[in-house]
Amino acid sequence: MAIQQDVNAPEFTRKYLNLADARLGAKPIFCSDQFFGPLERMLNPEPAVFIPGKYDDNGKWMDGWETRRKRSVGEDWSIIQLARPCTIVGFDVDTSHFTGNYAPAVSIKACYTNDPMSAENEWVELLSPQNLSPNNHHYFEISSTVKVNHLKVTIFPDGGIARLRVYGTAEIDWSKVSPGEEIDFAAAENGARIVAVNNQHFGLASNLLMPGRGQNMGDGWETRRRREPGNDWCVIQLAQSAIIDRIEVDTCHFKGNYPDRFSLQANFVQVGTDTSLITQCMFWPTLVEEQKLEMHKQHYYATEILPLGKVSHVRLNIFPDGGVSRLRLWGKFN
């Protein structure tokens, strides 16, 4: 299933990685109750679905985490492990398809720990109790510099949440990476992120940075059909400044809609906002000149890479439009 962007979603959902994505390693740890729907469903990256007439032994099958009706004082809660230690910039608490059974309110606390069930943990409140509505996305932008790896999600008093998406930046301990080790500096799991993109009508640019090969045509960056001069592009902040010595451009599953060509520009950016880079990136030097692409294929480049030295950002240009599944930018850590 294609993982599409909600058209009303705020900018942070387009720029930052969902650290509650099970594909990256996020996983459920504990919940007070999951009678109608297991906690793990809340971490599914695909949009929630509703299947009329589908029931299981406990009642109506729902695509999310759902607790039984509470008949006592209190609230339900869960603990999840994020895919990577991170700093968080926002949440999407999604109650899609939960109408008479949604959770009326939610709060989220966080901590950094190796034992999330320990009574000694100090949980920091990132989201105070907030009202929820049925069958809706609820976006909460937060400002936090706290490094965390677990969340405690509390619902008041009971009910269901279809999906929880936790947007932020992965915090990698580079002191534990061996000098000379080859790293994919365009991998979201290493901390790379999308800075800007001119179009992502059919597929999110952030898919370029995901692990593994694309599962289908929806699991990649795909733009609309261009009907005017120019080309499509996206800007990526690398996980760490690096000298790039090997590149992969994968058009997996893109057959009648792959780009005719691509090129890469790059630069070492010391200061500047994401907005300012949109203008600057047009003038960045070339890292890889225009190269022809083929459908449904992994393309590798090494000798084609021009010697720019250490770079922190790249601009991927596709000509004139189309879809790319993954972009890999390998280099040596030093």
Automatic annotation (TrEMBL):
Pathway: Nitrogen metabolism; (S)-allantoin degradation; (S)-ureidoglycolate from allantoate (aminidohydrolase route): step 1/1. Keywords: Hydrolase, Purine metabolism. GO terms for biological process: allantoin catabolic process; purine nucleobase metabolic process. It is an enzyme of class 3 (hydrolase). It catalyses: allantoate + H2O = (S)-ureidoglycolate + urea. InterPro entries: Allantoicase, Allantoicase_dom, Galactose-bd-like_sf. Residues 25-170, 191-333 form the Allantoicase domain. Belongs to the allantoicase family. This is Probable allantoicase.
